[in-house]
Amino acid sequence: MAIVIVGAGIGGLTTALSLHRAGFRDIAVYERAAALRPLGVGINLLPHAVREINELGLGERVERLGATPGTLAYYNRKGQQIWSEPRGLDAGYRWPQLSVHRGRFQMELLAVVRERLGADAVRTGHRLVGVRDGVARFETAAGEVSVAADLIVGADGIHSALRRHHRPGEGAPLWNGLTLWRGTARAPGFLDGRTMIMAGDAEQKLVAYPIGAGLINVVAERRGPGFAGPNADWNRAVDPAPVVSLFADWRFPWLDVPELLAAADEILEYPMVDRDPIDVWTHGNTTLLGDAAHPMYPNGSNGASQAILDARTLAFHLATAPTVRQALGAYEADRRPATTALVLSNRRQGPEQVMVLAHDRAPDGFEHIHDVIPPEELTEIATGYKKTAGFLPAELNERASLTPTAFSGVLP
């Protein structure tokens, strides 16, 4: 069975590894970039994704790349704590949460794909230009290349060429008016050194967490005119000074925010965008995965994790269903409703709505958060998001594995 994966990001590479683990061997990944480089900044891999990474035999390799946060805490603009909860192993999961540099993680996945599937498993410099009758057409520097496949998986991100092929009138991603500035800074740790913090409200926010020894990932957000639009360059470095000035008075007893932002090696500017959920991912022998299928706002730190879950679920059904059509139907039935709910939840701020509520109800601060938001409401928000995203501790710990125990599906 010949499988073509379009896109060598986290979703595409994890799909290749998941299919290989499930017994498939004729797998090729086609990437439009001429060369893959460790771009980006920090991301979080939540326990449901780390479980899948472990089942692929990559747990120790990936854990060495970053940090394992033990706490997530939310604050208002004054640095007053709104909510705090344990994360990863400290929260009772059988797997940790991992905070890693996206580029380093991608390069590690790339190395493992080449180790397991062969040096030529990932083919760069191939831009998808069309799909018809099971044949993917790619533009390359040497001319157009046609590749026949039994399955074509679009894992080519928010600007997916495969998605556009089936939905030519969809247009650009939808911008919500927020601009994000992301960077990594060599800086001392804060609080206990293992805490991921989010501070602010719906108009302005800061996220910071360690991704290695002495290395802090930082994300600043601001709503308003004059910032990046939806067509901005997604890896554009900007002058940090204006960003630092937006947070000039954000100095908490445990963190000097402008100092942290100023320490970043560079600041990259991004628009906060997503797309409306769609009612079908699969057309014939093609399907979508990751950001190509369900791009979402980063609230809740779930984008990369959901792509990994997509990859493992797709491979499981291909290995256990009798036909490709049935496998793709089962994959979409498992993943599309779940990710649709998550996209919509993230538009409502996801778990970060506790910061919005705190600001709306007490814009000048509070003496105690329970005077503003009852503890039951805080718990309900946190628990509800975990349920929507698929990582309630007890349910995740007890869920059956996505590694097929018998390869009875569509293997040749």
From TrEMBL:
Keywords: Monooxygenase, Oxidoreductase. The keyword Oxidoreductase applies. Residues 3-164, 279-343 form the FAD-binding domain. Pfam families: FAD_binding_3. The keyword Oxidoreductase applies. Gene3D superfamilies: 3.30.9.30, FAD/NAD(P)-binding domain. NCBIfam families: PRK07538.1. This is Flavin-dependent oxidoreductase.
